[in-house]
Design brief:
CATH superfamily of the largest domain: Bira Bifunctional Protein, Domain 2
CATH architecture of the largest domain: 2-Layer Sandwich
Helix content: 25-40%
CATH topology of the largest domain: BirA Bifunctional Protein, domain 2
Structural class: alpha+beta
Distance between the termini: 18 Å
Shape: elongated
Oligomer: single chain
Length: about 500
């Protein structure tokens, strides 16, 4: 049973005693009139105990008990709300008769959520506190918090029990507050640029918009399968066909692929599409977007990330093929044809999937020898057409596309291109992807006849881009696992026995 633990049973008994004494352990009549942060700011001028009886300085605060030092006639309590930590001085003679000895000392514990009324008080050590003249319990915690006051260090428990992680680790809350600000600022930036925020379907009849393996679900009413979307791209471009000239969507995507430090089965991105623009315009707006974020988040332009320093005043731009030799150190003669690339990869003990085409092999070289070396923001441009099924061909060189990917700290952050708006070319690309799928590529793009038909009505020349919000937040908060910036990351289920062991250890 979930409540068999002896410590939980003891706390359940204390909750009963509180209730029997007329103190509802799950009250809903909070009278809080300030937060910890506001209390500390407003009373920062209090320097000694002589000001403690000022009737204008009476406050009611609420929060979770994080530290409890019980003494004979007085105790110190530290409570925490979302805004910060506050020390409370609780004296027996300032509370109702017998409350201190019979209720407070015996039945209130670390983890409980309490409400305290009182006035400013400065301790002998100079700490601004609250001298309590009333105290009530709002919520009795029947599960004890981990003993370690500094927080939970076991990553598995932190991810599985994020609520406990948030209780114990204030820095974790700051990470997710930053994430929320990033999303809010992103929305404001694009709205100020005249983009319209839209919503497109999360369940698609065809798994399209990117090369990835989808999740499959079933629609009972229609009696057909649906795919959780891997990207909103094809629906957003339909809106450009329909006459909207600048649209964006911030939402979830789902990809049924492996999990690692930068991949979670569901993730958040912004995709935006801009009519009458090219991928070159997207390079400019991306630089502007980063500048906007850094200004509003008050971040330095040289940002630490692990043992690296990323200089956001040093954006670079380099074609993919050039990067293979100048950054990756691949000999130029090993980049010219399929056989040379395969031979080079094999010489480096890198296996090659059967049936990979020339563009895919060039991409493999990039992944293996270039990507992790791109520390400062770098736009890699001119991707092969074989690995860019939705991007516009270059007029000068039809073998490459007008596309870039942005890499920072060795990781892809964004993908963008001038959109393919030739319906005949798009149909041919889809057919090529279907051939790849028949050869065993389960991430190849599906045929989307409806999208080709939409293009046949004419889509204005357009540029589109996707930015991974999760990876962006990782970068801005110096986190190195995507799980650290997702409130509830995907986790492998644990058995009841394993869960019991984790609980006992913590």
């Amino acid at each position: 049973m979930i409540f068999e633990n002896k410590f939980i049973q003891q706390r359940i008994e204390k909750a009963k005693l509180l209730k029997e004494a007329g103190h509802n352990p799950y009250s809903n009549d909070s009278k809080r009139n300030t937060t910890v942060e506001k209390y500390l700011n407003v009373n920062s001028d209090v320097v000694d105990m002589e000001e403690k009886r000022d009737e204008k300085r009476h406050y009611i605060v609420s929060g979770r008990i994080k530290l409890l030092r019980i003494m004979g006639k007085a105790s110190f309590v530290k409570i925490e709300d979302e805004s910060g930590m506050l020390q409370i001085y609780v004296a027996r003679d300032n509370l109702p008769k017998d409350f201190y000895n019979t209720m407070f000392k015996k039945n209130i514990e670390v983890g409980d959520i309490i409400e305290v009324g009182g006035y400013p008080f400065v301790t002998g050590k100079g700490e601004l506190s609250l001298h309590a003249d009333s105290l009530s319990i709002l919520t009795k915690a029947i599960s004890p918090l981990p003993e370690k006051f500094h927080g939970i260090t076991d990553k598995e428990i932190r991810y599985r029990k994020r609520y406990l992680d948030l209780i114990m680790n204030a820095e974790v809350r700051k990470t997710f507050q930053t994430r929320s600000k990033v999303i809010s600022l992103t929305r404001r930036f694009f709205e100020d640029k005249g983009f319209l925020e839209v919503e497109t379907p999360m369940m698609h009849p065809i798994a399209g918009g990117a090369n990835a393996k989808p999740f499959v679900t079933h629609h009972n009413a229609l009696g057909i399968d649906r795919f959780l979307r891997i990207a909103p791209e094809l629906y957003l471009k339909r809106l450009i066909v329909g006459g909207f000239e600048a649209v964006f969507e911030i939402n979830r995507n789902f990809r049924n692929e492996g999990m690692d430090a930068t991949h979670n089965p569901e993730f958040t991105s912004i995709e935006f599409y801009w009519a009458y623009k090219t991928y070159k315009d997207l390079i400019d707006i991306t630089k502007e977007y980063f500048q906007y974020l850094f200004e509003h988040l008050d971040l330095p332009t040289v940002l630490p990330y692990g043992d690296m320093e990323v200089n956001f005043e040093n954006f670079q731009e380099i074609p993919l093929i050039e990067s293979l030799t100048t950054i990756g150190g691949v000999p130029a003669e090993s980049c010219n044809d399929k056989e040379s690339i395969i031979a080079y990869l094999k010489s480096k003990n890198i296996s090659v999937k059967p049936g990979m085409n020339f563009g895919q092999l060039q991409g493999e070289l990039f992944d293996e020898f270039v990507e992790e070396k791109l520390i400062d923001p770098t736009f890699i441009t001119e991707y092969p057409v074989e690995i860019s099924p939705l991007a516009r061909r270059s007029d000068e060189n039809p073998a490459i596309t007008e596309r870039f990917e942005l890499f920072i700290a060795g990781r892809e952050i964004a993908n963008a291109f001038s959109e393919l708006n030739d319906p005949i070319d798009q149909l041919s690309r889809f057919e090529g992807q279907m051939e790849a799928k028949d050869c065993g590529d389960d991430e190849a793009h599906e045929m989307d006849s409806d999208f080709v038909e939409a293009l046949s009505y004419g889509m204005a020349p357009t540029a589109g881009q996707g930015i991974g919000i999760d990876r962006l937040v990782m970068l801005l908060t110096n986190e190195h696992s995507i799980r650290d910036v997702l409130l509830f990351p995907a986790m492998k289920p644990v058995s009841n026995e394993e869960q019991t062991t984790q609980d006992e250890e913590n």
